[in-house]
Amino acid sequence: MAVALEEKSTSPLSFLSDNVLAAAINDTYSSLSEKRKLLGLENPGTVDNIAREVQKDVLLSNFMFSGLRCDLQKIFSVAPLFRLQHGFAMGSQALPPWQLMALYGNSNLFLQAAYSSDKSLTAWGNLRWSPKFVTKTQTAIDPRQAQAMVQIDNEYTGDDFSASVKAISPSILEGGLTGIVIGSYLQSLTPRLAIGLEGVWQRAALNSKPETAMSYCARYRSTDWIASAQYLAQGSLGASYWKRLTDKVEAGVDCQLQFAPGMGGAGGMFGNIRREGTTTVGVKYSFATSVYRAQIDSAGKCGVVLEKRVAPPVTLTFAAEIDQWKNTHKLGLAVSLEGAPEELQEIAERADQSALPPPI
Questions:
Q1: Domain, as residue range, for 316
Q2: What is the model's pTM?
Q3: In CATH, what number is assigned to the domain containing residue 248?
Q4: Angstrom distances, CA of residue 73 to CA of 13, 156, 191, 240, 335
Q5: Which residues contact 240 (CB under 8 A, 6 or more apart)?
Q6: DSSP label of 49
Q7: Share of the chain residues as helix, strand and coil, in percent rounded to the nearest 5
Q8: What whole-number distance in Å separates Cα of residue 230 and Cα of residue 247?
Q9: Quick one: which H or E segment has residue 72?
Q10: Residue 97 and residue 85: Cα distance in Å, rounded?
Q11: Lowest mean pLDDT, pick from 70-74, 303-307, 346-350, 354-358
């Protein structure tokens, strides 16, 4: 009787995993993962968005503009999403007179590019390798600048943590690494509390010395309010507080402080510290067809932004800002016209009609 013996094929690198040390590390990691799951921890977000609810949603940093603006949008398809937009601006120092923007996206890929009348080009791209790992890129080419800006961000979103590595304008053409590298990690300790850190390494050129900095952050989330704080090694402290007052009203407070030690003095190393800071208070009202935002800060600025959907394809935006100390002001008015396929317009019209109160 002939007996066939099968020889188990092994990989040349199998010794890295088939050993006592690797098995112990694997068992320890599996045990910690099981204990973390029993705590009911959730993903805390990213370090970049540690105060997203206040800085990017309630306050006017991303919504304030000046002058006249008109946006013409056309949606050609939804799955995948494909949209073109023409933007015209007048009387604004931040916006170009004309801009063409194209957007394409599906569940795993997102591409967006904008070309302006000043011959500048900006492109964004997101590629989702897996449900938890995504690569984000941004490229900006401006003829007025000596070199282009390239940013590559690799972000991993775990069940109870987030980690990312970001490189800004990296280069090895000079014989060494130059640019800016940023690494961040945010971990949930309890279902409400998360802490994290962010490290920055930068080197402008090979003849200059590399610089490093470390910052620390914390975020606490309750049922209807969120508090966050971030400390930078350069001596700046940021704190924010977000509160949901009602189903349609949100409020937020953001405080930015900078501590600069004085030169010499009888107080020693920590004497004669100069403190500078700004505190901003904002509120957001969300209605059926409009959104109203207002804020005021300790520097004497107060501003408002009102977005109103007049009809399913037409949106009006009004922005105003007054600086009490400098005696200056800004005014902005924008009109957005959106064209979509007939089936999307019917869905939008039915949604607007359902939001109206019943007749008396």
A1: 43-353
A2: 0.80
A3: 2.40.160.10
A4: 54, 33, 41, 35, 11
A5: 51, 54, 55, 227, 228, 229, 252, 253, 254, 255
A6: T
A7: 15, 55, 35
A8: 28
A9: strand 67-77
A10: 14
A11: 354-358
